[in-house]
Structure to design on (564 residues):
């Protein structure tokens, strides 16, 4: 087991206090690379990430590379992701890989080995997972992450309208799928961290009507609120609906970091403004 | 749009008739590589896949590499997967990549571009997806796959016990999550393929009590039945519960291909026997 001081929760809390809870999403789509004057290639994706880190002078709590936008370049894209991840981690910026992985037993453990095993080329600090096979099925995955001082974020409520019906369907117990996940996340965090903040976080869209209720049901978990900016949520939405999770809620911006232009200097201006606003969540 | 003759459904149906509906899972775990006398590395994973294809003399309908067991080696693992995938496809063995991916809008399209865009280094014939964000959210992903004559399998019912509660939760409509997915898969297949077999398949565990009902609700979809052998289901279970999907149900074996040993000759013996049994599903 990791020591408390080096656990994912302790490291993330320390970075949040130092640099604000802003999570910077790195989504090197063709559109974003073009806007940055970069080639639509693995090299372009790497350079985009390097530019964002340099613009922030590495003074960020965490970055969230979206795996899909690197995977589209095959093994070269993964190699770029490895280089970017190592660069960030060497300067203590935490890396949350957004891949929404999930599988059972030894397959789940194999995913986790790729992200958390000693010497893994794509070593990260945390990953996103999907719970369609049941959160219990991810136990081997989560155990492996926690043993390596990593974190796991579970998608609980997504902001897209197509997710509502499934995520609010009712189990035999009467709870909704999302409510039951919150309960299970709480149990896992208690198991791993006692009364402290645990290594299992939740992904909850800030525009979801039930966001506040989900946050209230997660008193010891980090909460990732994706899609702030381009997907319609604002930092004010996050504060209104999720303010109860003070210093645990991570508003995530991706396309919005280009709001003032794509040069390093433009990016710095935007990132500093966003971090300043995000400090209202501390 | 692809022509009917070159569509994923047409190509897979032709291969099933020629070689049986057996789907050969390639799960190069540390345990399997050790059993094969191969190094636990990307090179070992590639050699394992090459050995299975050679043992079968490429006379297989399809292989199903499990992405996790390649991803654990980072970019080198993906490079191995690219080489293996190209080898199989050059000999007309279809490749179903088991990665259970899923994300919304442009992110979903980026995943699909990695598997289906012209010139993609990891070009495959089909992929598995998870529907936690709602099947409707995968529309960009599926459109991209179908435009490239590819297929998409959606996890509907998994055989692990932890999946039951979520997958059978009830929507506001009264249908269960799984039942509603079957309905939506039917609508998508009708949209893409009219009355023929469509490009959207379902993953259903053969040991699920409701497997027969799910199959009955999917009259125009391929059905992948994973975990035959090691995970407790037998080909007889598949025949009993899913026999209604004649020539559309794909029993998938992974660890069980090593039942008689790990040499090329041993693998050939086992694969031929499994294919012979699987022909009962035609």
């Amino acid at each position: 087991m990791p020591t408390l001081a080096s656990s994912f929760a302790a490291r993330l809390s320390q970075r949040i206090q130092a640099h604000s809870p802003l999570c910077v999403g790195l989504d090197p789509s063709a559109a974003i690379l073009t806007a940055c004057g970069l080639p639509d290639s693995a090299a372009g994706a790497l350079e985009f990430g390097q530019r964002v880190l340099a613009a922030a002078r590495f003074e960020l709590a965490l970055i969230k590379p979206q795996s899909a936008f690197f995977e589209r370049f095959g093994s070269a894209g993964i190699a770029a992701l490895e280089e970017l991840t190592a660069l960030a981690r060497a300067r203590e910026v935490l890396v949350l890989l957004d891949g929404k992985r999930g599988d059972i037993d030894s397959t789940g453990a194999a995913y986790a080995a790729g992200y958390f095993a000693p010497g893994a080329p794509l070593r990260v600090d945390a990953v996103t997972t999907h719970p369609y096979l049941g959160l219990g099925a991810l136990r081997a995955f989560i155990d492996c992450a926690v043993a390596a001082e990593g974190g796991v974020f579970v998608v609980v409520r997504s902001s897209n309208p197509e997710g509502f019906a499934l995520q609010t369907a009712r189990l035999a117990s009467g709870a909704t799928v999302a409510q039951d996940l919150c309960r299970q996340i709480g149990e896992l965090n208690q198991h791993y961290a006692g009364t402290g903040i645990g290594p299992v976080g939740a992904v909850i869209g800030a525009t979801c009507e039930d966001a506040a209720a989900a946050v209230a049901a997660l008193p010891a978990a980090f909460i990732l609120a994706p899609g702030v900016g381009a997907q319609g949520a604002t930092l004010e939405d996050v504060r209104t609906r999720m303010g109860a999770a003070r210093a645990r809620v991570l508003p995530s911006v991706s396309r919005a970091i280009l709001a003032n232009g794509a040069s390093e200097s433009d990016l710095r201006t935007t990132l500093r403004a966003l971090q300043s606003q995000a400090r209202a969540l501390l």
Remarks:
- Chain B has one domain: 7-281.
